[in-house]
Specification:
Distance between the termini of chain A: 11 Å
CATH topology of chain A: MetI-like fold
Pfam family, one (chain C): SBP_bac_5
InterPro entries (chain C): Peptide/Ni-bd, SBP_5, SBP_5_dom
Number of strands of chain B: 4
Number of domains of chain B: 2
Distance between the termini of chain B: 17 Å
Subcellular location (chain C): Periplasm
Shape of chain B: elongated
Chains: A mainly alpha (about 300), B alpha+beta (about 350), C alpha+beta (about 525)
Family (chain C): Belongs to the bacterial solute-binding protein 5 family.
Strand content of chain A: under 5%
Order of helices and strands of chain A: HHHHHHHHHHHHH
Order of helices and strands of chain B: HHHEEHEEHHHHHHHH
CATH superfamily of chain A: MetI-like
Helix content of chain B: 55-70%
Radius of gyration of chain B: 29 Å
Oligomer: heterotrimer
Strand order of the largest sheet of chain B: 1-2-4-3
Keywords (chain C): Signal, Transport
Number of helices of chain A: 13
Number of helices of chain B: 12
CATH class of the largest domain in chain B: Mainly Alpha
Chain lengths: ~300, ~350, ~525
């Protein structure tokens, strides 16, 4: 197992390198640059800025410099937030995104697994149908519709909760963003759990156990191990996308997370900020997928850990 | 095939979903021709009309509308009488009124061609009559005064096309890539899958934004961009299937017969992976439509003169408090479509599940 | 097989907890939560470039002159000044009570330091050219002369002398701009680029920086050393960026933000209905226009340009589409500028729309388009945003009325700006301009033939350039106004840009907040505002 993890981590290095390379050249070749404002700069000012940030060098050289800095843990200066470095921006945004994404993940898992199991236990029962419909809806309504609706109902209508802002992570400010983020994920998880558990429950050996009159909770526990495999398999990418922030949720609720850096960075051609977020997200994806694979192996020892 | 049909026929929600889907597709295809409004037609005087069956202009808006028109004619209006679909009113101005100004009436979306009944005070006072038009906007109008029903239906075509074509693109790439990797095995497989890993780790939002920024944006590009990021899951799934198929006897037999790899892939491997692939594709369509709506939220989705449900919803979400119908109409269509597709995908998955055979 | 009970209990507990959470709606006493349309990119006044930054910098720093809450020029660090008869030499007397937030006195040398700093090419200041009226500034900024050749001197700690290259009637106004704000030399020398960080930043304005959370807030507090600290009523301000206007309005409605500096134009009717007098519209210094690429036929033909301009229903765009957050524009300069008279106007404002259409058709026919001629197709290039898109769609519909077909080319903002800056070919492009000072020169210089960055359509009319040069050299304000008026008249006849709308300032102001007066400069320094508890 340890050997497997180490090997996978080693393999991750070329993957990350490829990600860095592809995204570096993609963003650099995009039209426009960080200093193209609605009001164009004087050519002298533009030339000076390009020189200051080394844009006057050949792209290949710039790439080598960037890699060198990255290896030292230096993400470079940000072009849209000139008073702070990209490293600092990431360090401040990550806890925000991880708090909201982490809570959303827990909520989605709780809701999704709970409802999915409940639904699978009584196929065609009321709960099953409700979950089927609810999950379908959860998957069909865009987040940017859910968020304003929640704001209007809980913030303006009932006046229970604040409509936005971070306020250093005050609990009341987390509720709506977490809900918005968790609902579609809960829908995906509920659907997956329901389908896969239902299949497992109809497998011959489980049916035999049922026929033998084994207590329900033991059968469920039995079936869950296998039934949760598909859920665990997607958990890595789900967790990665939740923990690294959502641009919709952060924009609509005014939260200082990572998700906005991503989109704003790309649209503002803030090269270093985009690269920083890309690298960070790639690391999350690689590591969390590895965790998910290990979890799968723990759930089902028959699964070989293939490289 | 028949087994699948029978299984689906027994599944009432799935039938319902299928029926709804067909209805939506048909409405989107035929509907715009029947609403009586062109999708791009702007009614400047009928901006943000609430949905309803009643024809516009409403009787209570005739007078303010006439006053607005009179202002442009540099005249004032009085003695307005609306009767039998006609309006009769008096125009007065300090100077003689040029009769040509009456063309403002038929140009206003509200009235028909005007007729002068009487000319008084050396042309400074005109008695005019004109038919009051009756236009209905079942689902209201948007911020530019365009009929929302027509636009929603036209948008539906685009959204459905995006859903189908982008899924098709993802399917084609994923199927080929996965089957080749799985069948080739060994180093080729490892190398091909490494590329998939890289693309997985490359955040797709970034990738799509870059694609859209790079090339001159347009519908085709959105299709390609979405297809280009959504084939990864498909490729992984097909590869896993192929890996297990390769061990099966009939493939071994084909190899022993000396069939070429391409033939084996095309004749034996790909057809045998189709079941799960079809299910995955059904579920990918709603995902793709939703992804386009996300791009629209960022302002990178389908653009004028074309529109999509996502674009309409993004605009409607911003007007939620002032004109909720701008969100409601396209959102209802989108949700109904996605819900149906999801139910259908689930049902197909159940119907195709080989384990069902044993029952 | 029963539903797992513990699960249900957890659900209920969650719901109860949800109901127990009290909203943190009421702000800490005395905190003014000020909506700002974007997050500042920097708090270094010499690197700044946006209006969002300008609002914060105006609270943090004080220039020689500054604005009050009516947008009027008032003494800042300078308590008095004299201008030499030739209009070239300005002598400022600095306040004895002017202090930095660490207690140091603000001295004339601080301004010499600041002006040399922003003009130093190594700094890469984006807006340094605003200061080019100062003698020697242009050469210093281009690296052609040493910093000490700049005509800014400090003969005594309280006396500052600035000499100009040529008389500039709007020069005092330039001194309120963020490019002319002072920075604390010792802090800049000690911290370098990091001098703007909370804890490092020493400023001389009514407020001092307390905290910055990117994309969340900039928190400032009253500066006890400020010379008028006793009159500053609001103890602290949190500047909150509002990237999504619809959700910002919701937060305002929920009492989480006390004022918004930008509003969604397409929602104005409903905003006015919901918030009444809290919606405050005012004049501002911006122009929304369509530029033609004059190198490309048929757009080199003035008849085509005039025809396209004639049929644009500016009132519909401004009132209906932008909800009154724009004003119809028939001139390049917006009304209300200093040292000017009412702008000349495009012909046809008062004529009937049908006459305008007839005229447009006949102009197109003369140019060889329309019935009997070729069809005219226009490629309209704009950067994507809801309002730009709706404007483009509506204008296309108006052009369709005279038989012109419009195709859209839409790109993201950076691509659009870079495309125009690079001077690449286009047909019609959306352009906009927010002026730095309320003088017609700041609008009309855009179309000068030698303005290679801001004149994407390559308009070059020697007569126009001559008028602009003559105006720049003219010391008599009335004669200067005449020259500029003639230049604008010429530009409106040539129509290289179609003026479509003038921007207006738009704000939501909570009833708790008093002292806000909309003004042309869009200045609302917090030191003049009051917040009721």
């Amino acid at each position: 197992m340890i050997g497997f993890i180490l090997r996978r981590l080693l393999q991750a290095i070329p993957t990350l390198l490829a990600v860095v390379t592809v995204s570096f050249f993609l963003i650099r070749l995009a039209p426009g640059g960080p200093f193209d404002l609605e009001r164009p700069l004087a050519p002298a000012a533009m030339a000076q800025l390009r020189k200051t940030y080394g844009f006057d060098q050949p792209l290949g050289m710039q790439f080598v410099h960037y890699l060198g800095a990255l290896a030292r843990g230096d993400f470079g200066p940000s072009f849209s937030f000139r008073d702070v470095s990209v490293g600092e921006l990431l360090a401040r945004g990550l806890p925000v995104s991880m708090t909201i994404g982490g809570l959303a993940l827990v909520l989605a898992l709780g809701l999704g697994l709970g409802l999915g199991v409940g639904a699978a236990l009584r196929p065609a029962g009321l709960l099953d149908r409700m979950v089927g419909l609810g999950a379908g809806l959860g998957l069909a309504v865009p987040t940017f519709v859910v968020a304003p609706l929640l704001q209007i109902v809980f913030g303006l209508g009932l006046r229970w909760l604040p409509l936005g802002g971070w306020e250093s992570g005050a609990p009341s400010h987390l509720v709506l963003p977490v809900l918005t983020l968790a609902l579609p994920q809960a829908a995906i998880l509920a659907r997956l759990t329901r389908v896969s558990l239902r299949e497992t429950l109809s497998l011959p050996h489980i049916r035999t156990q049922r026929a033998m009159g084994l207590p329900a909770h033991r059968i469920v526990r039995h079936a869950l191990r296998a039934g949760l495999l598909p859920v665990t398999a997607i958990l890595g990418s789900t967790a990665a996308s939740l923990l690294t922030g959502s641009v919709v949720v952060e924009t609509l609720f005014g939260l200082p997370g990572l998700g906005r850096y991503f989109v704003d960075g790309a649209l503002n051609r803030d090269y270093t900020l985009v690269m920083g977020t890309v690298v960070l997200v790639a690391v999350f994806v690689v590591v969390l997928n590895l965790v998910a694979d290990v979890l799968c192996a723990l759930l089902d020892p028959r699964l070989r850990l293939s490289p | 095939m028949r087994r699948i049909a029978r299984s689906l026929a027994r599944n009432r929600p799935a039938l319902l979903a299928l029926g709804l889907l067909v209805a939506i597709v048909l409405t989107c295809c035929i509907g715009p021709a029947l609403t009586g409004h062109a999708p791009e037609r702007i009614y400047p005087d009928l901006v943000r009309i609430a949905p309803g069956l009643a024809p516009h202009p409403r009787p209570e808006t005739v007078v303010p509308a006439l006053e607005g028109l009179a202002f442009r004619m540099r005249a004032s209006v009085s003695d307005v009488i609306v009767r039998d679909g006609h309006v009769r009113f008096v125009l007065t101005a300090p100077a003689p009124i040029d009769a040509r100004v009456l063309t403002y009436l038929p140009r206003s979306d509200l009235f028909g061609p005007a007729q002068i009944l009487a000319r008084e005070a050396e042309g400074r006072r005109l008695v005019v009559t004109a038919p009051v038009l009756a236009r209905t906007f079942l689902l209201g109008t948007d911020g530019l005064g365009r009929d929302l029903l027509t636009r929603t239906l036209v948008a539906g075509r685009v959204s459905l096309v995006i859903g189908l074509v982008a899924t098709g693109v993802a399917l084609a790439i994923g199927l080929t890539y996965g089957a080749v990797a799985g069948y080739a095995g060994g180093r080729i497989d490892a190398a091909m899958m490494r590329l998939v890993d890289v693309l997985y780790a490359l955040p797709f939002v970034f990738f799509v934004i870059m694609l859209l920024v790079f090339f001159e944006a347009g519908l085709g590009l959105i299709l390609v961009a979405i297809g280009a990021v959504e084939w990864l899951d498909m490729a992984r799934m097909v590869r896993a299937q192929t890996l297990s198929l390769r061990q099966r006897d009939f493939i071994r037999a084909a190899e022993a017969l000396g069939l070429s790899s391409a033939t084996i892939l095309a004749r034996h491997i790909v057809p045998n992976t189709l079941g799960p692939v079809v299910v995955a594709a059904t579920l990918l369509v709603p995902k793709v439509i939703l992804l386009e709506s996300f791009l629209s939220f960022l302002g990178l989705g389908v653009q004028e003169p074309e529109t999509s449900w996502g674009a309409l919803i993004a605009e409607g979400a911003r007007a939620l408090e002032s004109a909720p119908w701008m969100l409601a109409a396209p959102a209802a269509f989108l949700v109904a479509t996605l819900l149906s597709l999801n139910i259908l995908g689930d049902a197909l998955g159940q119907a195709l599940d080989p384990r069902r055979d044993s029952r | 097989m029963t539903a797992p009970d513990p699960y249900r209990r957890r659900c209920l507990a969650g719901l109860a907890a949800l109901a127990l959470v009290r909203p943190a709606r009421a702000a800490p006493a005395g905190l003014y939560r000020r909506g700002n349309d974007a997050d500042p990119g920097t708090l270094d006044p010499h690197r700044a470039s946006t209006t969002a930054e300008a609002h914060i910098l105006r609270d943090l720093y004080e220039g020689l002159l500054t604005y009050d809450n009516h947008g009027r020029l008032i003494p800042g660090v300078a308590e008095a000044w004299t201008v030499s008869p030739d209009g070239l030499t300005y002598t400022f007397t600095l306040r004895a009570t002017a202090r930095w937030s660490n207690g140091d006195p603000v001295v004339a040398d601080d301004f010499v330091f600041a002006l040399s700093r922003i003009l130093d090419p190594a700094l890469g200041a984006k807006y340094a050219e605003v200061l080019f009226p100062i003698r020697g500034a242009r050469a210093v900024a281009r690296g052609e002369a040493a910093a000490d050749t700049l005509a800014v001197t400090a003969p005594s700690p309280r006396t500052l002398i600035i000499t100009l290259a040529q008389p500039t009637p709007y020069f005092l106004e330039l001194l309120t701009h963020f490019v002319a704000l002072p920075v604390h030399p010792a802090t800049v020398r000690r911290w370098g680029d990091a001098f703007t960080r909370p804890g490092n930043l020493v400023s001389n304005g009514a407020y001092v920086l307390r905290d910055v959370v990117p994309n969340d807030r900039v928190l400032v507090e009253r500066n006890p050393h400020f010379h008028a600290a006793a009159e500053v009523a609001i103890p602290s301000v949190a500047f909150l960026p509002t990237p999504d206007l619809a959700s910002a309005v919701r937060r305002y409605a929920g009492g989480e933000i006390d004022s918004l500096a930008d509003l969604p134009g397409d929602q104005m009717a409903s905003l006015k209905a919901r918030f009444g007098g809290q919606v405050v519209l005012g004049p501002s210094l911006g122009l929304y226009a369509l530029a033609f690429d004059l190198r490309r036929p048929p757009f080199d033909d003035v008849r085509v340009r005039r025809a396209l301009s004639l049929v644009i229903d500016r009132e519909f765009l401004a009132e209906r589409l932008w909800g009154g957050t724009m004003a119809p524009a028939y001139s390049l300069c917006p009304p209300g500028l200093e040292h000017y008279r009412p702008s000349p106007e495009l012909a046809g404002r008062d004529s009937l729309p049908i006459d305008r259409e007839d005229e447009a058709r006949s102009l197109l026919a003369q140019a060889g388009f329309g019935p009997g001629g070729r069809p005219l197709t226009v490629k309209y290039r704009f950067n994507t945003s809801d309002n730009n898109r709706n404007t483009a769609v509506a204008i296309a519909e108006m052009w369709r009325g005279i038989g012109v077909t419009t195709r859209f080319t839409y790109t993201d903002a950076k691509t659009h700006f870079a495309y125009l800056r690079d001077g690449r070919p286009f047909e019609v492009a959306r352009v906009s301009w927010i002026a730095d000072y309320a003088d017609p020169q700041n609008f009309l210089f855009l179309l000068q033939g030698d303005n290679d960055t801001l004149n994407p359509g390559h308009y070059a009319n020697p007569a126009y350039d001559a008028l602009m040069r003559a105006a720049a050299a003219e010391t008599d304000l009335a004669r200067r106004a005449d020259l500029l008026f003639r230049a604008e008249t010429l530009a409106l006849a040539d129509l290289p840009w179609i003026p479509v709308m003038h921007t207006r300032s738009k704000a939501l102001i909570s009833p708790r907040l008093s002292g806000y007066h909309p003004n042309l400069r869009n200045a609302a320094p917090t030191r003049f505002l009051r917040l009721a508890p």
